[in-house]
Amino acid sequence: MKRTALALATLMTTTALPAGAFAATELSMWYHGAGNPTESSILEGIVSDFNASQDDWEVVLESFPENSYNDSVTAAALAGNLPDIIDVDGPIMPNWAWSGYMQPLPIDESAIEGFLPGAIGKWDGQIYSIGLWDAALAMMTRQSYLDEYDIRKPTLDDPWTAEEFDDILVKLKDSGDFEYPLNLGMADNGEWYTYAFLPFLQSFGGDLVDRSDYQTAEGVLNGDEAIAFGEWWQSLFERDLAPGTSQDPADHQNGFIDGSYAIDWNGNWTARAKLDAFDDVVFLPAPDFGNGPKIGAASWQLGVSAASEHPEGAAAFIEFALQDKYLAEFSNAIGLVPATEGAAAMSEYYKEGAPLAVFYGLSDAQGSLRPVTPGYVVETSVFQKAISDMANGADVADTLDGAVDEIDTDIDRNQGYGHN
C-alpha cells in the first residue's frame, strides 16, 4: 500500500513539472566567421531564435578565424572532438565527407527546393551541406567607359566573345587612360585563383580534372584547349593588360575605384563599395571563350559532423536557418547572393530592379562548381601554383604537364578517392 502511494505521488509530481523543466539537449556548432562581426551577429541571432523556438535542442556557437578554421576542424577530427554542426567551404566538403568528418544531412529535399545549385553540397549521391548564400563573379566596369570607348555592353544571352574581349582590353590599354585595362586580383593568391580563373579554363574547354570519373587530369588540364587557355593567360601579363603576381593588395582593393583599372573581375561582395563610389557601375557576364561563359559557384555551407550523436537536432537547426528572412538578412548585411528567389525578393540589393539583382541571374545561369571530389584540396593548390607560374613566364605546356603529374600521383596515392 505504501509503495502504491509512493509511486502515485512520484507520478503526480513528475507530470506536474512544466515542459521547460527538462533540459534541452546541447548541440555544439563551429563557424568560420570570427573575423566578421556583422556576419557573426546575424548567425548568433539565428541561433538565439532557434533556441527560443523549441525546447528540445540548444545550439551553442563557437566562432573561429577563417584562416585557422579548416586546420581546427582537421585537428578536432583526428582527436575525436568534432562538434555537432560544422561550417564547411563548399568545394572542401567532399574531402571532409570522404575523410569521415561529416555524415549525410538528414533533411527533406523539399526544404531546399528552389535553392541555387551552388548552395547545395552533394557527395556520392547524398546531400551533406547547405549554404545560406552563394557568390558570383562579374566583369565590373562603368557605363561611361563603355560609351567613351565604344564598347558593346554584353548580356547573358550575348556575352563578349574571346576575340571581342581581347580587342576591348587592347583598346583600353592603347587609350593610355588606365594603368591596366583589367584587374584580375592577382594579389589575392589563394583559393581566389581557382575560384576566379578555373572558369576561364573551363570556358576554353579544359578543366582541372576529368569529371567523368575524377581519376586523371590528363587531357583536360594539358590538352589543346588548356594550352590555348595558358597561352592566352600568359599573354595578359606579357602585354601589360593586367597586373601580375606582384600586385599590391591595396591596388587590388582600390584600383578600380581610383581609376587605375577599367574593368574589375571580382565578386559580388565588392559590388556595394563600387556602387557607393559611382552611379554608373555595371556588372557584366563573363566572356565566352568558346565553350560558354562560366563563373565559380559554391560558398560556405552548414553540415553535420560524423561525430554528432544528434544528427536530427543538427538538421533541425540547419533547416530553421534556411528561412528566406535569414537568407535575406545575410544578403543585406554582407552583400552575398541570396540562395533562393524568395530571399532575393526580400533583399534590399537583389530584389527585382535592385542594383545587384543581376548577380542572382549570373549565379543561376553561369555558376560552375569546382571539381566535386575529395582530391580537390590537392588539385586546387596545384592549379594555383600553375596559374602563378604561367603568369610569371613559365613554359605553358611544361607547367600544365607538371600539374597533371602532381594531380594524378595524388589520385593514385589515395586509391581514386572513392569514386566508383
Question: What does this protein look like?
Answer:
The protein is α+β, with helices and mostly antiparallel strands and 420 residues long. Helices cover 44% and strands 16% of the residues. The strands form five sheets. Strands 3, 4, 5, 6 and 13 form a five-stranded antiparallel β-sheet that branches. Strand 5 and strand 6 (126-131) form a beta hairpin. Helix 7 crosses helix 8 (224-238) and helix 15 runs antiparallel to helix 16 (396-413). It comes from Martelella lutilitoris.
CATH architecture designation of the largest domain:
3-Layer(aba) Sandwich
Radius of gyration, in angstroms, nearest whole number: 24 Å
Based on helices, strands and strand pairing, what is the structural class? alpha+beta
General shape = globular
The N- and C-terminal alpha carbons lie at a distance of 67 Å
Largest beta-sheet details: 5 strands, antiparallel
Low-confidence stretches: 1-21
CATH superfamily of the largest domain: Periplasmic binding protein-like II
Query: How many H/I helical runs?
Result: 16
Q: Helix content range of the residues, please?
A: 40-55%
Give me the CATH fold name of the largest domain.
D-Maltodextrin-Binding Protein, domain 2
How many discrete structural domains? 2
Mean pLDDT: 93
Q: Which band does the percent of strand residues land in?
A: 15-25%
Number of strands: 15
What kind of assembly state do the chains in view correspond to? single chain
Q: Briefly, what CATH class of the largest domain?
A: Alpha Beta
GO molecular function, one term: maltose binding
GO biological process, one term: maltodextrin transmembrane transport
InterPro entries: SBP
Pfam families: SBP_bac_8
